[in-house]
Specification:
Elements lengths: L1 E2 L5 E8 L2 E8 L5 E7 L4 H13 L4 H10 L8 E5 L2 E6 L5 H13 L5 E6 L8 H12 L6 E5 L11 E3 L2 H11 L5 E5 L12
Parallel strand pairs: 1-2, 6-10, 7-8, 7-10, 8-9
Antiparallel strand pairs: 2-3, 3-4, 5-6
Length: 199
């Protein structure tokens, strides 16, 4: 078992601005790991990796190096740089809880210029409108340079944010902005193809 307390492997976030660093407090002789993952919501993934490593008898130093050398890909919590901008691409999947955590984590980053580009959440059924509305309410609690919403049930909600039906249209807008020295979060359900924005 793993977790932040009452488990065989326990650990806590020591930093996440923007990359996640984790302190292991029980179950392994690993003081601190500096990952290339973005977001505190990746803490359970790191603790799970440590637990699996310990279960199969992997030495602590190899667990640490494996986690620290892992480079996220396939639009999963990827951090990339384009010009002077830093982009967090998390366009593999999106649901209400992962969206909430991503937005809250992004809001905590220390940056003067933050651009939020969110694609609609798919397969929510009858709760879809309410969940998209809840996300807009959350976004409204923070200050952003720009907020762009793409597709899904965002189209059925009124708000003060930019809306585009497709990621292709959002890309055209994005390319015209010529952002500089900005942090940009791009997240959405797989069907929204949000990665197209930076292709």
């Amino acid at each position: 078992m793993y977790g932040t307390s009452d488990a065989d492997i326990t650990g806590t976030v020591s930093e996440s601005d923007p990359f996640l660093s984790v302190q292991i407090s029980k179950g392994a002789e690993i003081k601190n790991m500096n990952s290339k993952l973005v977001g505190e919501y990746n803490l359970p993934n790191i603790l799970l990796a440590v637990a699996i490593g310990k279960h199969f008898g992997v030495p602590d130093e190899k667990i640490k190096s494996g986690i620290e050398n892992y480079q996220p890909s396939n639009s999963r919590s990827q951090m990339m740089e384009k010009g002077s901008n830093k982009i967090i691409l998390d366009a593999y999947n999106a649901n209400p809880s992962s969206m909430k955590l991503a937005v809250e984590n992004f809001a905590r980053l220390h940056a003067d210029s933050k651009v939020l580009m969110l694609g609609g959440m798919a397969e929510l059924g009858a709760e879809s409108i309410a969940e998209h509305k809840a996300l807009l309410d959350l976004i409204s609690q923070y200050q952003w340079k720009k907020v762009v919403l793409v597709g899904g049930d965002f189209k059925n909600l009124k708000g003060d944010f930019l809306f585009f039906p497709t990621s292709t249209e959002a890309k055209t807008w994005f390319d015209e902005q010529n952002f500089q020295n900005s942090f940009i979060l791009i997240k959405g359900s797989r069907s929204m193809q949000m990665e197209n924005i930076i292709k």
